[in-house]
């Protein structure tokens, strides 16, 4: 059976989601995204220009049909703004999918858990397929799940930091508890980080900065594609653990022999 | 809902896959940091038997890490032996000609004092299934009395509706135990031919109703031996895994009632040895580090003394399984035969001698609003 990922009504063959920012130019972005084989890319609503000539516009470079768009609410600071931005995105991009991100803090861009939960509850009721970007907080992720989001997107490390899975212990709990897909977002700075996330059992990863700002974005995008596949295959196959040797001095089960 | 998930599985297929387990599968399961249902299957398989000592050691480590060196003590208080069900294995079955009794409020108070006098601050209330004697009106009348004397109330009664569980919670109930007996649909029907209990699906969906009502703790289990204990344990583990994910704010416990061969009674379909029960307990612990594992006085003193260190977190002591058994009518008929008849004080000493702390109270009803 083919190993696919289902989120809401869509089925994905690739478990690598990508961003569209920071690439420098749209041609480079397009090549890198093709090399990554990604099928879902997030687009900041604030970046979508409608006045530009069609061939230059960001959207023209996103292989229509094969790549699905995931508009995000980057830039909003509270639930009210997020709901408004979501409605704009639905109009502009003709999709009810939404990456919900609310960061009131412009320095570290930390997601606001309270506003995110409140916005998620409203957006689900408005018929959106909500994928919230959030802290690697297991309770928050369960609360978002109960609110009806389609997947959770906890961060691996501060966004743009390329630090990898510094939240690994929390991510393990989230993956273990979650009844919906878990997409590790933010902080993945190298293909090895992406592979690690997949080995832990994450359903997908979202990579942007590490791909867009690499010396050769196309080559790195391809490397991420391999890494995600390798990590996923290892998870499905079942990783061997570390050998444990029992060193009991007095056998615990000797009473059964008497 | 658990039922759609459950219906995707086939008993025979799962049973066969358990028996196909190899030593290599067991080694792999033992080596893992976080174990899956497939690992649990490997650990309860016959192929894991040679690894028992290693499993026991790992189980001990994992249990101490989570629970410390503590063992909870508990005692069941039977409110009634009235029952409208026929269950082939139960002393209270409708077709058994026994004197029936339901405690009155006055009798209940006497029993509560007797249980309290043994040192307990929590109590497990047990009944058969007989709506007219021990339905919600009876619980509404009796629970306030229990709450006056105990910090924590657990209930092991007939499956109820979600609204009932929500009401029971407001009456001070903290824990509800409901055992599926067997996850084998066909054999379940054979063993429960009459009464409300004959409805397999209503019982199977019961932990969902308890969870939705927001109960703090939910207990699950199978009557081991009624069918193949390995397959039943696998389905119990699957059930627990589903419940944990869905009702993530509840705690869970698993019990290991074992059907013993005895003259005149129902003979188990699969006889579970002591060694196998230890294997099962350790497999549970290795599969789930957080679940409470409980053992009753059905087991022998020697077995219980040794199992304390191997993964169990709570044991009953001084149990009477007849309504009025502690003070009102000590001679009446028991639901099942008790093997370990030692007083709770003696059991507490056994626990201390093993280097563990006996815990008599682990909840305060002031915390439950």
UniProtKB/TrEMBL annotation, chain A:
Keywords: Cytoplasm, Schiff base, Thiamine biosynthesis, Transferase. The active site is at residue 99. Its EC number is 2.8.1.10. It is found in: Cytoplasm. Transmembrane segments: none annotated. Its main location: cytoplasm. It catalyses: [ThiS sulfur-carrier protein]-C-terminal-Gly-aminoethanethioate + 2-iminoacetate + 1-deoxy-D-xylulose 5-phosphate = [ThiS sulfur-carrier protein]-C-terminal Gly-Gly + 2-[(2R,5Z)-2-carboxy-4-methylthiazol-5(2H)-ylidene]ethyl phosphate + 2 H2O + H(+). GO terms for cellular component: cytoplasm. It comes from the Bacteria. 1-deoxy-D-xylulose 5-phosphate binds at residues 160, 186-187, 208-209. One of its GO terms (biological process) is thiamine diphosphate biosynthetic process. CDD domains: ThiG. InterPro entries: Aldolase_TIM, Thiazole_synthase_ThiG, ThiG. Residues 6-251 form the Thiazole synthase ThiG domain. One of its GO terms (molecular function) is thiazole synthase activity. SUPFAM superfamilies: ThiG-like. Pathway: Cofactor biosynthesis; thiamine diphosphate biosynthesis. Homotetramer. Forms heterodimers with either ThiH or ThiS. Belongs to the ThiG family. Catalyzes the rearrangement of 1-deoxy-D-xylulose 5-phosphate (DXP) to produce the thiazole phosphate moiety of thiamine. Sulfur is provided by the thiocarboxylate moiety of the carrier protein ThiS. In vitro, sulfur can be provided by H(2)S. This is Thiazole synthase.
From TrEMBL, chain B:
The keyword Translocase does not apply. GO terms for biological process: thiamine biosynthetic process. Residues 69-298 form the Radical SAM core domain. Pfam families: BATS, Radical_SAM. GO terms for molecular function: 4 iron, 4 sulfur cluster binding; iron ion binding; lyase activity. CDD domains: Radical_SAM. Keywords: 4Fe-4S, Iron, Iron-sulfur, Lyase, Metal-binding, S-adenosyl-L-methionine. The keyword DNA damage does not apply. Its cofactor is [4Fe-4S] cluster. PANTHER family: 2-IMINOACETATE SYNTHASE. This is Tyrosine lyase ThiH.
